[in-house]
Design goal:
The chain has 299 residues and is of the alpha+beta class. It has 10 helices and 9 strands. It is globular.
Length: 299
């Protein structure tokens, strides 16, 4: 708190109330409310780039670039239906990607690295789930979480088989490409990092980087796939920022992958974690099936 007070004093902000939330400190002063948090110096280049592209949809930073802490103005979040809020967030992400789109020269080795990373992950997941099933089948009685996993293991293997097949198709599409579309990705998307009042703002930029746009949609899907109808979110996004065939296929591969299970000794938590993953696999299948029905008709 001493360091927070030091940076507040520099800007003549006299605090009279503090509220801690994770790494951030909300501070009430005579000049209004501010948010103070340790600065991620890697973000400085990102913010400069966003400013140069007239993307100003983040809370105003009032501290200097060289300060150890970042002070931003506090923005109030209006009450609104979450179904509307997620669409507003989708619009803002498509705007971010539109404003920061650029192309980088690549060669086959760049795409091969992505192919091999995902392929290795698929093989690891196959092996991990096979080992888990061998252990479960050696037990006389299954725990509830083991039964839940065993009952749905065919869905998990089907998802891995789909991802492996589609990864081969994706690599065929991109291995002769010599340009890659890149954007600024927020890389930490969720509703709690989106503020909506008369304007829209994204917070929590600590993981932002330059990368392919699909990764923002992938992270958003992992966070909220069970909360919303993602077919509408994807349509909304692509209306403003259409994916290429290869980009869409890569997104579908990523969201189809089952989780790497990290279980604990709490059976309730294990059941919940496995149940959520199975629900997401079923929901992903429903999301993707119309796209592949279209592909079949065009063959």
């Amino acid at each position: 708190m001493r360091q927070v007070n030091k940076v507040l004093k520099k800007y003549e902000l006299k605090p009279h109330r503090y509220e801690k939330s994770g790494k951030a400190t909300f501070v009430d002063t005579e000049r209004g409310r501010f948010v103070v948090k340790p600065k991620n110096k890697d973000n400085e280049a990102i913010f400069r780039y966003l400013d140069s592209r007239s993307f100003v949809y983040y809370p105003k930073i009032v501290s200097d670039r060289d300060d150890e802490y970042e002070i931003t103005e506090y923005e109030e979040n209006f009450e609104m239906p979450e179904e509307q809020k997620i669409l507003d967030l989708t619009d803002l992400i498509s705007l971010l990607h539109n404003k920061t789109t650029h192309f980088k020269e690549v060669d086959e080795a760049d795409y091969k690295t992505i192919f091999e990373d995902i392929s290795n992950n698929i093989e690891y997941l196959y092996s991990d789930y096979n080992d888990r099933m061998n252990i479960i089948e050696s037990h006389i009685y299954m725990s509830p979480s083991e039964y839940l996993l065993a009952r749905n293991i065919s869905k998990i293997y089907a998802a891995l088989a789909y991802a492996k097949k589609e990864l081969e198709h994706w690599y065929e599409l991109v291995q002769n490409e010599r340009k890659e579309r890149l954007v600024v990705i927020h890389n930490n998307l969720e509703l709690s990092h989106f503020i909506r009042n008369k304007n829209a703002y994204l917070t929590s930029w600590g993981k932002a980087r330059i990368d392919m746009p699909v990764f923002d949609l992938y992270k958003l899907y992992l966070k909220h796939s069970l909360d919303f109808d993602f077919s509408e979110i994807l349509k909304r996004y692509e209306k403003n920022y259409p994916f290429s065939e290869a980009e869409r296929k890569l997104l579908f591969i990523l969201i189809a992958l089952p989780d790497k299970l990290e279980l604990t000794d709490r059976e309730y938590d294990n059941c919940k974690r496995i149940g959520n993953m199975i629900d997401r696999l079923y929901k992903t299948e429903i999301l993707l099936s119309p796209y592949y029905e279209k592909e079949e008709k065009h063959r």
